[in-house]
Amino acid sequence: MDEYAFFPGCIAKNVYPGIEKSTRMVFEKLGIGLKDYEYSCCPPPGVLASYDKPSWLVIGARNLLQSEAEGLNPMTVCSGCYGTLHNVWHTLKNDPELMDYVNEHLGRIDAKYKGDIHPIHFIDVLKDYKAKINALKEIDLGLNVAVHYGCHYLKPSDATGENSERPTLLEEMVGLVGCNSVPFKDSLTCCGAGGGVMSGEPDVSLKIINTKLNNMQDAKVDAIVNICSFCHMQFDQSQMKLGTTKIPVLHLNQLYGLAFGIRPKHLALHTHLVSTRDLVKKVKAAKKGG
Amino acid sequence: MGKSVKEIIMDGNGYACIQCGRCTGSCPAGRECSLRTRKLIHMARMGMDVIKAEELWDCTTCFTCQERCPKEVKTTDMIIEFRNIAVEEGYLPTMADVPKIIIKSLYDTGAGQPLSPEVSKIRSIIGLKKEAFDVSTNEETLKKFQKLLDGLEISKKGGLNNG
């Protein structure tokens, strides 16, 4: 059985627990093991690295080393956490001097980071389970969706190895459960939340997301499907602040949960700020129709 | 560990910049505010006071500029590192308290975004443990984590008063 160290991240644990729950349920159905560790916050790639980059490396490395003895790769459900852990791993792997600096600090708490295992984004785990996802699907959802990756999953591509200008994986993954990824203007732009801008420069942040939401609205989508808890929070919370659009926001694991026939309440869909009621009705109709 | 502006430019390949402006043209924040990445790189190279530029803090760190730069200038990395100096020298225009709140929460709970009683209730209702298993579950582990933070610059910069 495939097994990963599960790195839920602060937002999926403490703000949108439906993301943690749906991940656990979907992965259990797929037969992929998730093991818990004593993780801290990743810490955030924008805010903390902007304050003191060396400290950010040390705290990130402490997270990475948790599962090193057991050889399990840490798996994230947030592109922000992925950005931090992947960047820390990539930086330290290529810079022995910084690695020594980090281990000097970790030595103070009798820990050592070797860099043997590497962080992985959950979508990169799921892409090897396409046949099983198809087999587990109880409902062809039939939704038109706007997909959103989260910048730090894709970029910087010299570290992530992704095609940052024309990614296709998420489009393909929503297609597995009968969803249609609708093209929309400037689909790859940032959600506007990162770098401390959401909290520090809220007006700028809201202007960026407002443009994005309007572009999604123009494409007449039923939902926004994301693979990043932090962007998920920005999409859901900003719509309440702006009050112009009401597009339900789903993490990919919540979408799969629905397709696998898990009850929407178990996925915490009723706790989102933007109502998911009409979306759930559509899914129920699709179930009867299918 | 701290780098100078000059070292940041060197490490970020900033001297290769041809001032073409693709970074500024690609910037989602720059469409909405005064952030002009090309200008920041220019200021830094000319020895102007880039550290005091408030718009350093408008960058969402989306990496689009860095990704598209035809000369492989590490624009986003540079902005993040310029911010490190700005913090050190006390130039924190608007978001001054935000990282401090996050750093305090990180120290006290291990999470940058702490759990509220409302979300804890939701966790129980949907069948999760009231509090997730993490660095704060075991008191000894949290103490060790705090010891690690005590010796890091982030504690001083974040204004944590823990000796």
Give the key terms.
heterodimer, A: 290 residues, alpha/beta, Glutathione S-transferase Yfyf (Class Pi), Chain A, domain 2, Rossmann fold, 2 domains, four-stranded parallel beta sheet, 51% helix, globular, B: 163 residues, mainly alpha, Fumarate Reductase Iron-sulfur Protein, Chain B, domain 2, 0% strand
Please give the structural blueprint:
The complex is a heterodimer of chains A (290) and B (163).
Chain A: E1 3-7, H1 9-14, H2 17-30, E2 33-35, H3 47-51, H4 53-65, E3 74-76, H5 79-93, H6 96-107, E4 120-121, H7 122-126, H8 130-136, E5 144-148, H9 151-154, H10 157-160, H11 169-175, E6 180-181, H12 197-200, H13 202-218, E7 223-226, H14 229-242, E8 249-251, H15 252-259, H16 277-289
Parallel strand pairs in A: 1-2, 1-3, 3-4, 5-6, 5-7, 7-8
Chain B: H1 5-11, H2 22-26, H3 37-45, H4 64-68, H5 75-88, H6 97-109, H7 117-125, H8 139-150, H9 153-157
Helix pairs in contact in B: 1-5
Describe this entry's structure for a reader.
The complex is a heterodimer of chains A (290) and B (163). Chain A has 290 residues and is α/β, with parallel strands linked by helices. Chain A folds into 2 domains: 3-122, Glutathione S-transferase Yfyf (Class Pi), Chain A, domain 2, CATH 1.20.1050; 137-289, Rossmann fold, CATH 3.40.50.11810. Helices cover 51% and strands 9% of the residues of chain A. Chain A has helices spanning 9-14, 17-30, 47-51, 53-65, 79-93, 96-107, 122-126, 130-136, 151-154, 157-160, 169-175, 197-200, 202-218, 229-242, 252-259, 277-289, and strands at 3-7, 33-35, 74-76, 120-121, 144-148, 180-181, 223-226, 249-251. In chain A, helix 4 (53-65) crosses helix 6 (96-107). The longest helix of chain A has 17 residues, at 202-218. Chain A is globular and about 60 Å long. The model of chain A has no long low-confidence stretch (mean pLDDT 96). Chain B is mostly helical. Chain B folds into 2 domains: 5-88, Fumarate Reductase Iron-sulfur Protein, Chain B, domain 2, CATH 1.10.1060.10; 97-157, no CATH class. In chain B, 48% of the residues lie in helices and 0% in strands. Chain B contains 9 helices and no strands. Chain B has helices at residues 5-11, 22-26, 37-45, 64-68, 75-88, 97-109, 117-125, 139-150, 153-157. In chain B, helix 1 (5-11) runs antiparallel to helix 5 (75-88). The longest helix of chain B has 14 residues, at 75-88. The relative contact order of chain B is 0.12.
